[in-house]
Amino acid sequence: ADKLAGEGAKKDMPSLLNLNIMKSLTTEGIRLASATQSQIYKAIIKQRILIPRKETTINLEYIKGAIEEATGMRPTSERIWLSLRHNFFAKSIREFYWKTMVGAYYLGEFWLHTQHQKDRAICTECNEVETMKHILTECMVSGQYDIWKLTQKLWETTEEEWPEPSYGMILGCNLMEFKDKEGNPNKSLRRFYTIIVTEAAFLIWKIRCE
After folding, report:
1. Beta strand ranges found along 74-190 (DSSP E)
2. Which of 17, 133, 136, 210 is deepest in the core (most CB within 10 A)?
3. pTM, two decimal places
C-alpha cells in the first residue's frame, strides 16, 4: 500500500478512479422495516402494468374513427380521456361517460357470462344484445330516436350542419371542432354542442333505467 501511495504521489496527473458502487452491492427498492403503508402501496401501483379493458379499447376506436371522419384529425387516447374531464360536463354526466368508456355498466356481454341470467343480455323489444351503443343509437324503446331528433332541432337554431350522432360521435362530442365566420375556433358553439349531446345521451340512459 505504501509503495502504491508513493507511485501515486509522483504522478503529474491524478488517476481517474471509478467510484461507482457495483450493482451487486446496491439495494433496490425500499426497506420494509422503515417503509410506511402508503409508500408500499405507491410502489406496488407504480410497478403494476395496466391492461385496458376490451370495451375501453373498442370505445376509443369508435371515438377516434368518428372524430377523424368529422374533423380530419385523429385524436389520441390521452386527449380523449382529458376531454371527459372538461367542465362542460355536469358531474353526473362525467360519471356516466367514464363508466360507459370502461364498460362498468352491467349490460350485454356481462350477462352472457352468467349461468342463470343470460336472458338479461338481450333487449327484449329489439331482440338484440343490449350494449350501450344499442341503447344510445339503435333501440326503439329507449326513446333515443325522438330525443336525437329534438336535439337536432335545437342544434339547427345555430344554422350549423347537424353532425349525425353515431356512437363514436356521442362519446367524443367534446372533441368536435367548429369555426366562426373568420375561420377561428368557435368555443361557445363547441360548448353548446357538447352540452346538448351529453344531456341527450344521459337522458336516454335514464329513461332506459326506469
Report:
1. 122-123, 128-129
2. 136
3. 0.74
